[in-house]
C-alpha cells in the first residue's frame, strides 16, 4: 500500500469514527431502540394495556437517560430522547391506538428527511455542516466547489435513510402492527445508521476528483 493510500484510508476511518461519535455511538442506539421495544413487549404481555406499556416505556427511557448522563452524554440530547418517549406514550393514550406511540418517530424521520433535502437544495448540505464542524473548518468547505458537490451527493444517502424508515414505519403504523413496529425500530436504528455512515463516506470520497487533497484540506477559491 502506498503512503498516499494509507493516509486516505486513515482519514476515512477517522472521519467515519468521528461521525459515529457525533451521532452518539451505541448509546444513542440503546436510547432509540429499547423504550419502543419495552412498549411493544409490555403491550403484548399485559393484554394490550396502553397505560402499562406507556409507563414502562417512559420508565425505561428515564433509566437509560440517567445511564447516558453518567457516561457523559449531553443533557439536552438525553432530555429530547426522553421527551420523544413521553410524547409518544401520551399520543397513544389519547387516541387509544398503541401504534400511535410510534407516530413521533414517523414524524421525526419525515422532518429530518425534509431538512436534509432542503439543505442539499440550498447548497448547505447537512453532511458538510456536520463534518466541517468535526474538523474545525466551520464553513470553509463551501468555498471548495468540488467538496461542496461531494457533500451534496453524499447527503442524499442520509435522505435515503429517512425515506427507508418511513417506507417501513408508515404501512406498519397503518396496520396497527405494534410488535412489527418494535422490531423495525431496532433493525432500522443502529444497523441502518452504520450502513448510512459507511455508504455516505464512500460516496463522498468517490465524488472527489483524484487530485483533491481530501476533506481536511478544502481548496477555497475566494
UniProtKB/TrEMBL annotation:
Give the transmembrane region(s).
22-44, 50-69, 76-93, 113-135, 156-174, 180-204
Give the record's keywords alphabetically.
Membrane, Transmembrane, Transmembrane helix
Q: Name one Pfam family in it.
A: DUF3159
Q: What is this protein called?
A: Intracellular septation protein A
Amino acid at each position: 500500500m502506498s503512503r498516499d493510500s494509507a493516509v486516505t484510508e486513515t482519514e476515512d476511518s477517522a472521519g467515519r469514527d468521528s461521525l459515529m461519535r457525533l451521532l452518539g455511538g451505541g448509546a444513542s442506539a440503546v436510547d432509540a431502540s429499547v423504550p419502543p421495544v419495552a412498549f411493544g413487549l409490555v403491550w403484548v404481555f399485559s393484554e394490550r394495556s396502553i397505560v402499562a406499556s406507556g409507563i414502562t416505556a417512559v420508565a425505561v427511557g428515564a433509566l437509560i437517560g440517567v445511564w447516558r448522563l453518567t457516561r457523559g452524554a449531553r443533557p439536552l440530547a438525553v432530555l429530547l430522547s426522553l421527551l420523544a418517549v413521553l410524547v409518544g406514550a401520551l399520543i397513544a393514550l389519547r387516541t387509544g391506538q398503541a401504534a400511535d406511540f410510534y407516530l413521533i418517530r414517523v414524524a421525526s424521520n419525515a422532518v429530518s428527511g425534509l431538512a436534509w433535502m432542503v439543505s442539499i437544495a440550498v447548497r448547505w448540505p447537512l453532511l458538510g455542516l456536520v463534518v466541517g464542524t468535526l474538523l474545525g473548518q466551520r464553513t470553509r468547505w463551501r468555498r471548495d466547489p468540488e467538496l461542496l458537490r461531494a457533500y451534496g451527493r453524499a447527503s442524499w444517502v442520509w435522505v435515503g435513510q429517512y425515506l427507508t424508515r418511513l417506507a417501513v414505519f408508515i404501512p406498519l403504523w397503518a396496520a396497527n402492527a405494534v410488535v412489527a413496529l418494535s422490531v423495525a425500530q431496532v433493525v432500522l436504528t443502529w444497523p441502518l445508521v452504520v450502513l448510512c455512515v459507511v455508504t455516505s463516506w464512500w460516496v463522498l470520497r468517490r465524488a472527489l476528483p483524484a487530485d483533491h487533497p481530501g476533506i481536511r484540506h478544502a481548496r477555497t477559491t475566494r
